[in-house]
Amino acid sequence: MGTLFPADIAEIIRASSRDDEHLSMMTESLTKLFRSSLSPQNFIKYSSYASVIAKFIYYATTSLSKKQTLGEEYMSLIQVTSRSKRELPSTLTHLLFLFLETFSSFGGKILAKLTVPIYMKYQKAIRKTSKCLTEADYLPEWSQIMTEAIIPNIQRLHTAHFYLFDKNFHSISKRMTNIKYFSLSSSSSLQIHKMLRYIGYLNLILFSYSMIESILKIYFQFQKAQPSQGAPKKLNELLDKYSAKSKYSCPLCLEFSFPAATPCGHVFCYSCCTSDALKDDSKYGTDQVPLRCPQCRHGFHYSRVIPLINYE
User: Fold this and answer.
1) What pLDDT score was predicted for residue 174?
2) Is residue 138 scored above 80 in pLDDT?
3) Of 200, 225, 250, which one is at a domain's C-terminal end?
4) β-strands 291-292, 299-300: how paired?
C-alpha cells in the first residue's frame, strides 16, 4: 500500500456526491419496477421503501463486503476507524453503519413515538381542550413536526459543524460509527476550503433562523390559546371540531386522511388524488390531463381535485 494522507474535505464531499448519484439512479429504477409490477394502491403504500432498499443493497455490497463504494473508489479513499493506528472498520462497525444509514428515514418516526408524551403534555397545557385525547391522536402531528422540522435542523447543524470545524464526518451515521477516511493523494485547495466555510456559515444561519421561527411559533401559539374577554365560550370546541382527525379511510392507501373528489365523482384521500402514482405515463397523458382516476381512468388535472368537508 502506498503513502496514505488524511482525506481532504473536498474529497469526502465529492465521494459522497458520487455515492448519492448512484443511489438516486438505483432508487429511480426500483420506483419504476414498483410502478410496473404493483397496483396503484400498493405502489402508494410501498414506493417510499425504494430508497431504503437501494441504500441497503448499495452499502451491503460495498462497505459491508469490505469493498470501496463507487464514490470512494472514484476519489481513492479508504475507510479507517483510527488514523494513528490505521485500523480498518470491523464487520460489526459496518453492520452498525449499514443499519444507521439505511433505516435513518425511520428514525424520525421512532423518535416521535418515544417523545410523543412530552408533546402531548405541552399541547394540553396550551390548548386546555376538554376532549380526552390520547398519545395516538397526537402522534401524526408530532411525527410530521419531527420529520419535517426537528430532524432536518439536526442534519443542518451537523452539516455546518462538518464544514466549519470537524471536516471528518460528512454523515451522522459515519460520526456515530467513527468511520474516517485516508486518501492516496495529498490534494488540497485553500480556495475550495474558503468556499466550503461560507456554505457552513449559511447552514448555521439557516439553522438559527429555523430555531427562532420555531420558538416564535410556540410563543404565538401559547398567546393565541390564552382566553380573551368577549370570546365565545365554545370557540375552542369549534376549533377542535374542525381540526379533529378525519375518520375517512382511503380505499387506496387505507390511511385515515382528509377526503377529496375527482371530477368523475370518485372519492379518495387528497394525497392519493394528487400522487404521482396516478400520473398517466402513456402517450395519452398530457400537461392538461396528467392524472387518471384509478377507478374509471377518467383524465383530470391537479387543479380539478376538490377537497371535501364534513364527509363521512
Assistant:
1) 92
2) no
3) 225
4) antiparallel
Query: d(Cα 143, Cα 149) in Å, to the nearest integer?
Result: 10
Last residue of a domain, one of 209, 225, 241: 225
Q: How far is CA 223 from CA 15, 206, 239, in A?
A: 48, 26, 16
Taking only the tens place, the pLDDT of each residue in 9-48 is 889 999 999 999 999 999 999 999 999 998 888 888 888 8
What is the model's pLDDT at position 229? 45
Cell of 208: 438559527
Same domain, 221 and 266: no
Contact 92, 63 (CB under 8 A): no
CB neighbour class for 242 (10 Å; exposed up to 12, middle 13-18, buried from 19): exposed
Burial group, residue 252, by CB count within 10 angstroms (0-12, 13-18, 19+): buried
Tell me if 244 is assigned to some domain: no
Q: pLDDT at residue 206 above 60?
A: yes
Q: Is residue 266 part of a domain?
A: yes
Q: Which domain holds residue 300?
A: 259-307
Confidence of residue 140 (pLDDT cuts 50, 70, 90): confident
C-alpha to C-alpha distance for 75 and 8, rounded to whole angstroms: 10
| Measured CA angle at 113 (ends 101, 130), to 5 deg | 155
pLDDT band of residue 221 (cuts 50, 70, 90) is: low
- Amino acid at position 253, single letter: C
* pLDDT (tens digit per residue) in 251-271: 777 777 778 888 888 888 877
Say whether both 152 and 218 belong to one domain: yes
Say which DSSP state 148 is in: I
Could you tell me the pTM of the whole model? 0.65
